[in-house]
Structures are given as C-alpha cells and as structure tokens.
Amino acid sequence: MSGLLGLAWRLLRGGGRRGLLGSGLTVAAVAVSTGLLLFTVTANLAFQGRADRGAWRNPVAATGGAVAIEAVHLDYVNERPITVVDVAALEPGAPAPPGLDRFPAPGEVWLSPALAELAAGLPADRLADRFPGKGGGSIGGSIGDKGLVHPEELVVVRGQDPGSPVMAARSAVGVDDIAPTRIADFTGRRTDDAIGYQILALIASVLMVVPLLVFGGAAARLTVARRDQRLAALRLVGATPGQVVAMTVAEAVITAFGGAVLGAALYFLATPLLTGIEIQGGPWFVSDMWPGGLAVLAVLAAVPLLVGLSAVVGLRRVVVSPLGVAKRETPPAMRFVRVVALLAILAVVPTLGAGVGVGVVATVLGLAFLAVNLAGPWVVGMLGRIVAGTARKPAGLLAGRRMIDDPRAAWRTVSGVAMTGFVAGFIGLLTPGGGLFDHGDSSALRLSVPPAEVAEVTAQARERLSAAGVRAEVTVRGRAEGAGPSPRGRDAAPTVLVVSPRGHDVASVDRARTALDGLVPGRSATTAADDDRSGFRVLGDIGTGTVVVLAVSFLVAIASAGITAASSILDRRQTYALLRLAGTPLKVLDAARRAETLIPLTVMGGGAIAIGMFCALPFALSAMNVSGAITLLVCVVLGFAGVIGAGAASTPLLRSVTANPAPRPD
Amino acid sequence: MPSFPNQAVGRSAGTPRRERVFAMSVVLEGFGLVKRFGPTVALGGVGLALRAGEALAIMGPSGSGKSTLLHCLAGIMKPDAGEVRLLGERIDAMGERERSRLRRTRFGFVFQFGQLLPELPAEENVALPLMLGDVSRGDAVRRAREWFGPLGLGGMEGRRPGELSGGQAQRVAIARALVTRPAVIFADEPTGALDQATGHDTMGLLVDATKRNGASLVVVTHDPQVARWCDRVVEVRDGQILPGSQGAEPSPVPAGRPLSGETTGVLPEVAG
C-alpha cells in the first residue's frame, strides 16, 4: 500500500506542466469548496452561539425556589435599540448574569462596551444621563462578550431591589418587553427571533451546500478524467482494479487535502471580512467565525474523503474494462427517470405550507435542488439533440454533438449558475417589498401609564421635560384613541401619554427619552417607529442573507464554470491542436465552446429560476415585487457575464495548448 | 478500382509510378529553409520541390528534422530563413490567419491519430472542413458521404470515431483531408498507430486516393515500407537532406514564376 502511495505521489509530481495545471485546478476548486463549506458550518454555529448568548435575557420562570427576578424592556437611542435588563437578587448567593463577574447590587449599572462608548460620545442629556443611577447608583462594570449577542449590541443591566416598583409583578406592555420573572438561574431560553435566524441560516446552508457538493464532485472527477488514459495504460500492463482504484483515489485525496488546507487558510484569512457582515443589528465576534477545532478537523477530513469517493465513482468505467477509456463509444442515453424524480418532488411542493415543520421544508428544498441537478444532464442531452439536428454552422454542430456526447460535462459548466438561479427564484418570491409596511411615526413618544396615575405622571413629565429644556407637547390618549398604534401587549395599559418634542429631530427625541427615563418604573417611552424596528430589522437581515447566499452561489458557479472550461480544453488538447494545425480557425472552436455553455445556460438557468419560484410559492409573502425582480435580474446578468467571462478567461489556455503544433521533437 | 468523388477527369487510373510525375510542374517549393529551436538547428538550409500529382516521402530518424520540414512546407511554422511557395506564391510570409485559411482550403492533413472529433459521427467529421468553408450542412454531409464507399467505409457514416478501428479512423481522416479538393496532402506518420497489414492498406488507399484526385502527397515517416509507396523519397539527417536522396536535385522552376495553365489544369475545380 505504501508502495502504491509512493507511486501515486510520483505520478502526481511527474505529471508535467499540464498535469500540474490540472492538479492546480483541482486544488483551487477544492479550496473554494472547503472555504465556503467552513463558512456555511460556521454560520450555523455562529447563529447558535448568538442564540445561546442572548438566551439569558429571555427568562424561564422558576418552578421551584427562585433566586432572582429578571425583567427586560427596550429603550432607544439614536434610533437604535438598547436592551434594558433589570435584575434583583432574592438570595445572597444568586448567580451572576452571563458577562458580569458578580450579581449587580441595587442601583448598580453595567453597560455593554458599545453602549458605554456611545454614552461617552453623545451629549449626556441624550443618553448618559439615563444610567448613573439617579437614585445614587454607580457604574458596576462592563458586560463581557458572554452576555452579548454581538459586539455592537447596546445592553444595560441594572441592579434593583426586589421591592422596587420596577420589579413589581406586572404585565409586559412593549412588543419586545418581558415582565418581571422569578428565575432559578440565568440559563433562559432562546428567543423566537434567535430560533428564526437559526432556521434561516439552515435554509441558506442547504442552498449553499448542495451546489458546493456538486462542484466538489465535479472537481474530483476532473482529476480522474485527465488520468483516464494513463490509468487505462496501467490496467493494460496488468495493474489490478484494486491497485488502480487505490492509486487514483490516493492521488485525488492527496490533491484534495492540499486544496482543503488551502481553503481553510483562505477562510481564516477572510474572517475579518466575514465578521463585518451585519445581521441582527450588528457584526460578529471574531470567535463567532472560528467553528472550533473539531469542526475544522472534520471538514479537513471529510472533504478529501468525499473527493476520493467521487473519484471512485468517476473511475468505475475504467476499472470495469481496461479498454473502456481507450475506446470511445456512444454513451447510453440519460434515463428519463431523472426528470421523473424532479417532477415527483415538485408535485410534493404545493402540499407544503406554513404549518409544516422546518425540517420537512429544508428536506424538500434540498431534494428539489438535487433533483434539478439530476434532471440537468438529461435536459442538456435533449438540447444537444435539438441543437445538433438544426445546426447550420460548424460551431453549432460541434456544440450540439458535444452536449449529446457528455451532457454531464456541459451541465457541470452551467450547473452552478443554474443552481444560483434556483436560489434567486426561490428568494425572489420570499423577499418582502419595501412598500409592504409603512414606517411608523418616529417623532411622537408614547408611554403607557396606569390610569390611576395619569394626572400625576403627566405633571411630572411636563416638569421633567421643561427641566431638561425640551420643548414638547404632552397629551393624554384614552383607551379608544390608543387602540390603533398603542402597544400591543395583551393587557396593554389603557392610557397612553403622548409626548411630541417640538424639534422632531433624533436629538430632541433622545433628550425627551432621557428626561422621561424612569418616569414609569420598568417602562421606556417609545415611538411607533421603534415598535416596528425589530420587524424591519428582520426584513433587512433577510436581504443581507440573500446577498450572502447569492454571492456564495455565484462564487461557486463562476469558479465551476471557469474550471470546467479549462479542464475541457485540457481534455481535448490534442484534437484541438490538430484541428488548428489543419487550419480550423480558433474562433470556431471558441464559438463552439461558448454555444456549448450558453445554450444550456439559457434553458437551464431559466428553468431553474422558474422551479425555484415554484418551490417558494407555498411560503410566498406576496407576489413578485420590484426588489425581488431586481434581485433576479441582477442574478441573471451576473450569471451570464460570469460564465461568459470564465469561459473567455480560458481562451488563452486554448491558444497555448494549440499554439505549439509540434509536440514531437523531430 | 473505386471511383473517387473528386477524381480528375481524363487521368487514367493505375498509372505506373515514377514515370509521368517528372514531366509535371512544381506545386510546392521550399528554398533554403532554416529553423532553429533555441540552440538546436532543426533545419539547416533545406530546399525541396513537390510536383503536381507526386507522392513524396520524407524519411529520417527521430530528431532529424523531418517533421519540422513538413510543418514549414505546410505553413504551420514560419521558417527562420528561406521561402516556401505554393504555386509560385510565397506562403511563409503570410500572417497566421492567412496561413490558417490556406491550410484549410489548399492543404489536407492526415496525422497519426487523435485528429477526429470524438463527438462527431464519421460523416460529420469529414463534412467539417466543407462547413468551415461555408458549404451548407446538407451539401457538406452529402459530399462527405460520397467518400465512404470508395474508401471502403460503406455503412460507417454514422459511427463515431470511438466505434471505428484504427484503420477505419485513418480512412475517415483521409476522406476529411481530401474532401476540400486540396492541392497537397500532408501526412505525418499516417500509419504510425496501425499494425503492418492495416498500415499497408491505409497507405495504398492514401496514395491512390490522393493521386486520383489530382493532389500531391507529402508523407513524413521513418518506415521504409511506407516510403516505398511513394514516387520519390528524401532522407533527412541533422536538418539536411542527404545528397544521395532524390530531393536534392535542383528545382526546375525559377522562384517567383507565375502560375502556369499546366499547373492549374491538374487541380480539379472545387465544386459548390
């Protein structure tokens, strides 16, 4: 075995310049795949990490003895949300909240680093005046990373006395508010939002991983395709099938391992860029982008293994018969079963709906994706027959015949972009339009007030505002008036104090917020726009996610198109060289190559977009809207430009393999 | 004897070799051809004339420069010095595009192996050069099919190169080389990948088909058996033609001589 490994290694190294170029292409393909695979794995782990780090702010009521009380509400500054966590210890031994080194004493305030920085940067009457406990408290410290969802998150933890009105049992009023809850520890539970993000990340992963696997497999077979001749020769001189398989797989695995290591290195070099992707209102911790040693090792082991497996599949033909490669025969036609599989899965799609579990949806989506990939070569073969039958020019004839001859190869070139079309079609329908919701009013602050205290609170509010120098109109809305835009808590306070600062600008609103801080215990004044903010953030994040998924898909698609284009030239270099020698213009060969790619791209790209849209129908929020259409259009343009560009990039290679027509020395 | 589609009218089949060819005019000529690859001199000032309808073998051991000579004569390579003339017209000074067009229209090529596009059926492989010359696909395929019977390929029209034997594939290549009615066929070790008997048959067909179609033939080979089929043999050693071989005799045609009626009359008119 070690002798075989040694021979495989020598064959790899002794492959000559073109052999090296081929191995280089494989290394590049595997590197891109590995890097993106690591990104996908990490993204899921990172969202899980965020969900876990944020869970302590979503308290679970203690069933036995409680040690503390926790309440959460949102305050705002500069149109950004601040998570305000009030905690009160019921027992001396209460555990410290995550990110804090001890339980805050009553009156103590702990700020997240981003909030502390913001407080220092803005005028005190806009933000800082809200914190250094007006009741004589002090800054206890800074909240560590363990307690923060992301580094830019604005969080304040306030120590309270268990008897303080802030901790008094009451119902939640704000959209994102959590009423005081008696807790046994700070484990908490992942928020619905966080779980939603994890699900979206999972769907995005499926959309990214399937083309990655297809691409990686293509890269593996690419190595084998070029070694066909040599392996057949080895078979002819008497190597056993086992030895041939072992050597090829060893060669593929060695190459793939090199690519995997390179890909991992590239991934880690790219992490500073990746941490900058803002989702959920902020970028990522550097540690979020480290998937863990075990995951890295798993990917580094799995990628070469998968490549080796793919190589075995590609080798089957050579091993069966030593002449299988030397003699080139008409390949058997693709079975129609491939299309049936796709149709069967598409038939299932309409039965899906909002009520179906996310696992089922992800599975069906993944299967539909794979089925498109399965049906692709069949359709390419059909197209080839049509093109070859109707071609009038040599380029068209060549392209058509080539598509019939090896529909899988033609499909590999365009599969990436077609898969991206699927993603774009799917997401295109799911992208909510900007016009679907109106931004709420951002200038009028509203504060729910217990009916009994309205008069007193109103007077205090006027007093505080004038003391702070904020000129504002203060009105009281009753139950009937407040029904529309009022906070949507189940037992929403019936009376709402509406404060409209004269300035209407962000700074005036912030100063009014600061002035009103603590007026009603455990509540902050919010605008209608504030209450919509988290909803808009989710929509914005879906947009960001779409861009990331599409960017990854395009990277894969264009890399795949470029690599297959180059390898197809390497595979046919002798015939190309002899044809050119006999006077065939290079541009005919180029035109054939282009047609061979563009015809399937047009048909399959369009088909995949349609299938993607069809799969999204059960979940569609609305009909195709402008932004979805623009996303799709950009995809189509980028896809075509990318594939044409990748193909054009290999024209110099075509020129070079055909330029030296005298490969023989004499 | 089979009848070839392009067969020149008025020429009797089975003409004894080495008789009439010397009376004919020169089709292709090289003067003082020099080609270097780095420090290696592949051709050291070679002169050679090919007459209409003549079959010429260029022999020599590996590394002697015989393939380089063929590449220079066929306009594939530009010589470092010297001239190549086709029917009196200089082709070595032409640009790559022009030489490409020339190779496609006036020359035909038969290589050792690997020249047929594996994706195309045999008849489309033969039709390809015609289609490149803007012949309609229907006409091109129809004209290509005419070659299959005479070359012993009847019934193979729809087969792909992978489904043909080595000898059959070479005959398809011969058909493809001749289908455009070229003035000269260049064959580089055309039987190199075949067994002796098949090589013998293939060579016979190549010489016969070329002559019947009024074209000249240049064969590069290291095999004396192959060379025996030709009217004339020149031996190349170290980039020079051996003095004893027949290629060294002085050219009877002065350089720059305009095309004569006699020369063009030998070439069949290209139909379509």
TrEMBL record, chain A:
InterPro entries per record: ABC3_permease_C
Pfam families for the chain: FtsX
Domain annotation ABC3 transporter permease C-terminal: ranges: 203-317
Compartments, record wording: Cell membrane
Record's bilayer topology term: Multi-pass membrane protein
Superkingdom field: Bacteria
Residue ranges crossing the lipid bilayer per the database entry: 20-41, 199-224, 244-270, 290-315, 336-361, 367-388, 409-430, 547-570, 597-620, 626-649
Keywords recorded for this protein, A-Z: Cell membrane, Membrane, Transmembrane, Transmembrane helix
GO cellular component: plasma membrane
First-listed, main subcellular location of the protein, grouped into a coarse class: membrane
Record protein name field: ABC3 transporter permease C-terminal domain-containing protein
Lineage: Bacteria, Bacillati, Actinomycetota, Actinomycetes, Streptosporangiales
